[in-house]
Amino acid sequence: MSTNTDQPMAMTTITNTSASLSNSIPPNHTLYVNNLNGKIKKQQLRKSLYNLFVTYGRVVAVVAIKGVKMRGQAFIVFDDIQNATSALRSLQSVVFYDKPMRLSYAKRDSDAIRYSKEQIAEKTAALAATSQPEPKQRKEKPRIPPPPTQPPPERAIHEQHIAMMNSEEVNRAANAVAAAEAELQELPLRDRTRRIQSVIAAQTTLIGTAVPMMTEVQSNSTLFITNIPNETTKDALEILFRQFLGYLDVRLVPGREGIAFVDFDNEVGAASARDALNGFKISATNAISVSFAKK
Question: How far is the C-alpha of 18 from the C-alpha of 103, rounded, in Å?
Fold first, then answer.
């Protein structure tokens, strides 16, 4: 992907610069993001950016280059211009790792997009023009196909790990842990310690790690959010959840920091939001936990 080094660096007049670029540059598939937290590791930054932007459409690529000139900047490539425009409008100035993001269209569209539109068409046309019908070949005896190649051991282990972490059992265990933590926070310290010891002695997860296993909450149209940074506003939470079907409202709990409730008008939208945002890192140190609220 093309990442011009002449893209504007983050500066004190970021807002005016981003606004002028958005007006002067025609909409395209690639968004330029700056004013990012330069202390975040590259791999973690790319993963968090992908999880945030993919909610607006299919993301083709996320490019974040660690260097003096490109620090705090990234490029997000969508497969559709409309999705890129929706993400630009919705996420402009949203606080991301303790800094407000500044978004604009990139000066040049992604090489991946231009290649798929122009070069592939040219190569296909050239191949069709020069191709000749293949001569008839003698019939040969059928050959036994070789056995399929096995992936390298490291890759196979990695794929097994990914499959296990995405399994229903692990997701159910993670949700149970989040619910247990929320329940334990409301108990006195003495009762909390006893509760932890009794639950650990009684149950373990399928992957062998001893964790409290609580009764699974039945799906409904209200979500319970925990581990929210104290500085997070209602508007910031609305940006994350309003993109899902049937969103109604975000309810903060007066006098209780770090938790909130999100209401939907149907269980399908609530389930989609839970699956997409459970474990989402809303800041450098906080990954929110999303589960169904107890009715």
Answer: 6
